[in-house]
Amino acid sequence: MDKLHDKILFNYLVRDVENTAAVMEAGAGHVVPGIVSDKFASVEDAATKVSEIKTVAKTVSIGLGGGGNTANWKKVLEIAAVSRPGHINQPFETSSYSLGYLDGIGHQKQLVNGLVKPTGEVGKVQLANSGSVYKVEELMEIASHLGIESIKMMPVSGTDHLEELIYLTKTAQAKGIRGVEPAGGINGANIRKIVSSVKDIDIEFFMPHIFGSAMDKETGKTIPDKVKEVYQEVEGL
Predict the structure, then answer these.
(1) Which of 48, 50, 143, 157 could form a disulfide with 148 if both were Cys (CB 3.0 to 4.6 A apart)?
(2) pLDDT tens profile 76-122
(3) Number of domains comprising the chain
(4) pTM
């Protein structure tokens, strides 16, 4: 994946091949386009869409959908098993299982994140599925031993949980986790502050998920001008 400043990637939802190509161009290639599982009637329909998008993008992200609805974890995994998208979203509790399953069927290069929620307290996170609260150091240690390579924090509500996100990113890097993926309320007005806050943390990748603020609600397409706005805010850092 082609990272801006050797670190930054952007995750946007896309509607079709044409929308993907436009979004990739607007983000100067530093984009991981995605779909969400709950928008498709069947695993086969979603897998077909992934295949179409992969004609213009090397990696596709499959999201849970429904604002991070953990009940969709199995559908995401089933889509990934058929389509080899490259990146999938999972609640922390199922991420290790998903890694093992995909590896077992020969999908060794799939990146699986583990979703956690902010708690409002720096140094603690909540599991998205069970609701259990952990110290960040403890959970990153567990993630490291389980082979979980990326942690998604959602909802960060823009910059409301920025200090928690910074702490998570520092700790993840120290424990050998490859990436951190914040999501929720991120847009062109706050992206610069978010990215600059982790600029000096030597983590392999930092990938904000930017959905609603960049999307045309009528067409379901991400707006290239919104993507370009975000890219330009971060490019000059």
Answers:
(1) 143
(2) 999 999 999 999 999 999 999 999 999 988 866 799 999 999 999 99
(3) 1
(4) 0.97
